Amino acid sequence: MSDIRKKLFDLEAREGCFERIIERLYRAWVCAGDTVIDGGANVGRHSVPLSEAVGASGTVISVEPIPALANRLRASLPPNCKVLQSALSNESGVGEFYFVKNDPAYSGLQRRDYPFAVLDIDQISVPKIKIDDLEAELSKLTLIKLDLEGGEFRAIQGGFDTIKKTRPLVIFENGREKPAKTYGYTKEEFFNTFNEMDYLIFDLFGDNFTLKEWEKPAVPWNYIAQPRGGRDIKNILDNILGSFIH
Predict the structure, then answer these.
(1) In which region does residue 126 sit, left (phi positive, over 0), alpha (psi from -120 to 50) or beta (all else)?
(2) pTM for the predicted model, two decimal places
(3) Which domains does the chain have, with CATH numbers?
(4) What local confidence, expressed as pLDDT, does residue 137 receive?
């Protein structure tokens, strides 16, 4: 592991830096008037700064399936945020959702391994939507941020046509083999989808993420997908990372 990667992992363990890196990244990327999607908005950790970044003329589509959290977002977020009480997926309809009451951030469309022994889970029915269902609202889409506890790739598949057309930056979590097994896809399907959309993938530290890195140890769980030939995110990311380790 390089010295820079070790420093960033150590900083994340001590005080948490990955979410702050992500915030700095999208603040540098989006512009006033843009439309962005915050998938898995939870309590609004990213919807609020995203609303500041796009300004009054922009729109944040905050997607949160847990009813109580969606209601909280509707009551607290600025007017340029549109809250959808739904789960992003690769299909539309109604689906079963595993609501982890003792830690809602771990909730998702599939039951998964949890990092705690005591579970308080309700299985609830929620609307499922595809990003492609929102196409009419996404003409100025420049960013998609996804934190769906393993469901990120299926949500990306559900936005395949929109992503190919509008070419947004996509920032997403990816636990690699575990969510692939839980959500029923292969690593080949994962990379083929991004290739078909003409996207490159980097990890949060700016290193290329390809099929040969799928099982590589010491890889962060946050990733960035950038359209080939678009604005270069790597220089922006390098400057941000440098400010965290110096």
Answers:
(1) beta
(2) 0.96
(3) 3-245 (3.40.50.150)
(4) 86
